[in-house]
Amino acid sequence: MLKLFYNAGSIALASHIALEETGVNYEGIRLNSAILEHTLPEYLAINPKGRVPSLVTEHGILTETPAILLYIAQRFGSDVFPPPADIFDLAQLQSFNSYLCSTAHVNHAHRMRGKRWVDESDSHAIKAMQAKVTRNMQECFALIEAEMFKGPWVMGEDYSIADIYLFSITQWMEGDSVDINDFPVMKAHRAAMLARPAVKYIVDKHAA
Ligand SMILES: N[C@@H](CCC(=O)N[C@@H](CS)C(=O)NCC(=O)O)C(=O)O
Fold first, then answer.
1. What is the CATH code of the structural domain delimited by 87-196?
2. From ligand 1's centre to the CA of 53, what distance in Å?
């Protein structure tokens, strides 16, 4: 059976929702953040990056949200995620998801994970990075709203893994001091996502 390793509040929310949407049989394994379980040898044997999510499949272990989402959608999700019409549409989907992975998520990480980029003892540098998070995230959401979001879903008429990924990034708006009311498309998208039973079920599970 598929196994998904996740932490509450993390980007693993996306992979978890994607699995739930498809109805595939899987086991969700929640790591205990309080004891930094994702840094313990048992978990590093599964994912040496020490990050979540990790998806254990019968073919091997997958990490990196864009890869996991694509795998779930293409292998199990054709009913809920209509396959992109052609290779260009598929590349556009990957372009959107890559932006979330390499830019939006990384901008957000500067609030809590500054020690990845500077020495933890350099409190001036840590604070300077934290101070830019709100503005950087606002810029990401402004660009998504103005240029990237087709509507009614991210890629247009069809619900896709890009919607799940975006929803998992907009969960951080409040913590990043971004006012969702300044981003009406993101606000409406979050409401549309929460109206989906699979999304609500997993959001509630992560909050419990
Ligand atoms: N590029 C990875 C990023 C995964 C990642 O950074 N996950 C965070 C949670 S949102 C994590 O595991 N952080 C633990 C840490 O940095 O110690 C992905 O998209 O899956």
1. 1.20.1050.10
2. 7
